[in-house]
Amino acid sequence: MQQHKKVLEVIQSDPSLIELTVKGWVRSFRSNRFIALNDGSTIHNLQCVVDFENFDEALLKRVTVGAAIAVTGHLVESQGQGQNVEIQVSKLEILGDADTEEVKLTILSPKRHSLEKLREQAHLRVRTNTFGAIMRVRSKLSFAVHEYFHKNGFYNVHTPIITGSDAEGAGEMFRVTTMDLKNVPKNDDGSINFKEDFFGKETNLTVSGQLEAETYAMGLGQVYTFGPTFRAENSNTSRHLAEFWMIEPEVAFNDLAANMDLAEDFIKYVINYLVENCQDDLAFLEQRQQQEDKSKPEAERSPMPLMEKLQFILENNFKRVSYTEAIDILKDSKPNKKKKFKYLIEEWGADLQSEHERFLVEKHFKCPVILFDYPAKIKAFYMRLNDDKKTVRAMDILFPGIGEIVGGSQREERYDVLKQKIDELGIDEKELWWYLETRKFGTAVHSGFGLGFERLVLFVTGMTNIRDVIPFPRTPLNAEF
Amino acid sequence: MQQHKKVLEVIQSDPSLIELTVKGWVRSFRSNRFIALNDGSTIHNLQCVVDFENFDEALLKRVTVGAAIAVTGHLVESQGQGQNVEIQVSKLEILGDADTEEVKLTILSPKRHSLEKLREQAHLRVRTNTFGAIMRVRSKLSFAVHEYFHKNGFYNVHTPIITGSDAEGAGEMFRVTTMDLKNVPKNDDGSINFKEDFFGKETNLTVSGQLEAETYAMGLGQVYTFGPTFRAENSNTSRHLAEFWMIEPEVAFNDLAANMDLAEDFIKYVINYLVENCQDDLAFLEQRQQQEDKSKPEAERSPMPLMEKLQFILENNFKRVSYTEAIDILKDSKPNKKKKFKYLIEEWGADLQSEHERFLVEKHFKCPVILFDYPAKIKAFYMRLNDDKKTVRAMDILFPGIGEIVGGSQREERYDVLKQKIDELGIDEKELWWYLETRKFGTAVHSGFGLGFERLVLFVTGMTNIRDVIPFPRTPLNAEF
Predict the structure, then answer these.
(1) Are A334 and A345 in contact (CB under 8 A)?
(2) Radius of gyration of chain B measured on its C-alpha atoms
(3) pTM across the whole model
(4) Residues 336-395 of A with CB under 8 A from B
(5) Which residues of A touch B481 (CB under 8 A)?
(6) Where are the coiled-coil regions (chains A, B) (predicted)?
(7) Under an 8 A CB cutoff, do A127 and B23 touch?
(8) What local confidence, expressed as pLDDT, does residue A1 receive?
(9) CA-CA to B371 of 20 to 30 Å: which in A280, A362, B253, B256?
(10) Residue ranges of the domains in chain A?
(11) What is the number of other CB atoms lying within 10 angstroms of the CB of residue B423?
């Protein structure tokens, strides 16, 4: 279909006398002779050699950083370093100019820009090496997710984004409405008359597709969601987004052990996929990280180089440790005794912080860790209660550098136990009638987990701010573009 | 990982003396002897033969429609019709009961339920043959979409769901807010003080990821989105959803002809994928449609049987016809002259309705049709103006039965022309500064299209109401589950 060739194909081709055309954007133009051309298909540029005597000077003046051009010529062996072939340009066309003075005001200008500056021009940043690499890796990772589940007989379910239920229990929600905010319809008692709203009731943006996915698992057996989820939390940190993508598999008849097996197998598959299919971008990102680490205090540096970190996941069995064991280890740990932890671990029941999770992974076990059987009090209502009545069949997977990457559980499949829990928490049963019904008609053991996609992209790209791994981040006071 | 086998694997296996375990839900239990077991992995049930003398009567009483059970036994050649093998049950376990009286009140009860009734129990309907088939086909289609783009070197882009721009121009939007609706913060002049809102500005749910995808196409070359989009239109029809999934590819350097090539190639790929990978579910859905057509007036019946309709797409070249030609054909057509069209075609500039689109496809050309070069007045601001100054490089793909399935265009890449159009329409330029900037720095010809995923699922499943091809439909006054 394409009349022109992609840079990715061309740089892998052999020299040939057949002419070909390549289109892309100018990254640099050295010595009035060497154009570095990039079209986004790869991190690499195609070197295009122009003999300036054959071209109009005015034309060559328009070959500036950021300009879109088409070059035609044949491929020859390259004399220069860093590429096997280069194109000997016989025809050069300017498709779209880029005014040098205006480019200077943007992140397209050829100098080092801070990540903060790049965020302000999110519509242009994908044209830089760093963001080109991140977004290609993100895309490949996304495909690997679908491929894994597809190969393993899972069905993809598009759970609703707008939800009439506020019982998902995972955090603050965004309201969705078509009511006139200047004149919100009210009932006689002063409360809001949601009957006048689009859906005739209060609606919010989903925080998780899990509950709906569970209903599908009880019909299709093995399902997964991969869609946007939302948190209206006023957290302006490098780890939080108001809008992010989440992966949530849910499997009928899986108990917690099978759930752990699934999560470990899944993560290893998608990371291995990247190691095999994104070498160039990962190599660039590893270099970038090492460069950046040089200017950081040691405590903030990456615990290991990027590729080594990915191999660390692939080569280790994830160590399975109960919450109770973990608390004992942490209580007795040096940083706890020497009060180096910000949050000291004093007793069973404490919620673990990232510092504790990282200690377990990086210092104590030196491998990825799956913690399980957490105190019921610090976990969600739908998790299956153990016979001890104080722990639930929850599991969290902990990774180096970031701590928790996966949270999952075996679900409470017993109608009476679930109903009692819902009542105790004061959740309106009418909100969850359909969820409860799945426990009425052929209920079964089932399990699932949630993985925040951007957390995983952070991990595999070695980036440190979550705003840099999603095209247009949404955070408090920021919904630009 | 699984200790039990899927029905899909088992029914394709040879008889064997090795015992295996299968878990699923009871679809029927005939003669106290034959359990039809389904686990969602396929439309087919596994026949499980129990010798009632070997089992406790009380246990067998609990084998009721909807109950979850585990059966263990070995596979033997089946004497009955409709299956090659059946399982000779040596062990039977009830995992979850389904009270017969309560099941009677649900759509799980073994009789024919209307699609309306099934919608009211969307948490259970995937456990019926029809919805199991639809949702498996939907999932496979979703995978085929990702596979096509992946194979062809496209990058997947997650464009934002919450948007600060209301210039996307595709329809009414839902407001997203965290403001207290009982007490909306106002400015001195009575207007709403959006500075107090979560994002510090007015935000809505996206109606299209196109504009953001364009910025990524100008960096990565070939991209696509596949995510939820929203319309706050009060349209209670069988064709409209307030929340639906959209596929939007966008390609740098593609002109309109290349855009048509891409769309045709893409659609044929994904439909062929289903024909090759969903035979059983499609065969069931074809039967279902034929059954349903019997009770419909002829005008409302499907123009052709399901599989024939899919082959019709695969085997025909899509006929490319300009809007102007199409208007001439329609003006001279019998239904126009005999005033059979609800909307008569009287002059150039008319917007085409589904009846006109279907006439062109089903009666006139007898093949899928791509209309192009539409009047600028009836199309969006970002479409490339032709030299005639009155038409734009838009294209719509028309299919039998449903009319428009794809809408796309070559985008206006000329900064000045785009800016003028935006000004003429009174769109606030500040909203689109970033979009305009892509035309400033290395602009290039580029094109893309949008395909409503549910429209395509409707087409390939032969269903007629769009609420039946998405797990939990959102429509006016309906956001249940």
Answers:
(1) no
(2) 27
(3) 0.97
(4) none
(5) 160, 163-165, 212, 215, 434
(6) none
(7) no
(8) 40
(9) B253
(10) 7-111, 129-172+207-468
(11) 10
